[in-house]
Predict the structure.
Amino acid sequence: MSDAAVPAPTTPTLEADIAAALGPRSIVLVGMMGAGKSTIGRRIAARLRLPFTDADTEIETAHRMTIPEIFQEYGEPYFRDGEARVIARILEERPVVLATGGGAFMREETRDRIRERAVSIWLKADTDIIMRRVRRRADRPLLQTADPEATVNRLLGEREPVYANADLTVASRDVPHDRIVDECLEALRSYLCGPRSAVEPPSDGMNATS
Ligand code: S3P
């Protein structure tokens, strides 16, 4: 058979595969403060042509207060109740890419909502990365302690076993953002569509260490 007789291959893109398999579900990023949930989430949303939503921003808009103000005025339990309500509402509306605050996934009810309506990705960051990133901003009320690094380590100890219940885990580290985004998209495709078939050509650089 001559080359001309070979039908043109259909090459669905990574993004199209994921969007089709995702259906009405959202993508939810979970993990510690400083893990890059908003930065990476925004880029995943752009690649998949989905709206991006940041739960912390939604909470601040709903209360017309910043998160430190909400913590100071009403306390953490009040913030957590509002956070759970806001996330439940967002997930009911339409498919989005949602970045959650670092403590949101600790609530069972929120994990249940996420499991029902979304695919979750834990952006897993170690203490060094988290500390380097959170030092740049002083707007995390939980880190206003005498020893923020000890606080981060304590929170990691409590939270990592729970974050591990996310559907997917991707290591957050200091590499170009698009590399983490590519890893999230590859992980989503494997999870949603199964492993790639052997006949598909590998995409450049995707076998790099993670
Ligand atoms: C929190 C993380 C923050 C914010 C609040 C509490 C936490 O969000 O929700 O300060 O409990 O880890 P980010 O993870 O986006 O920093």
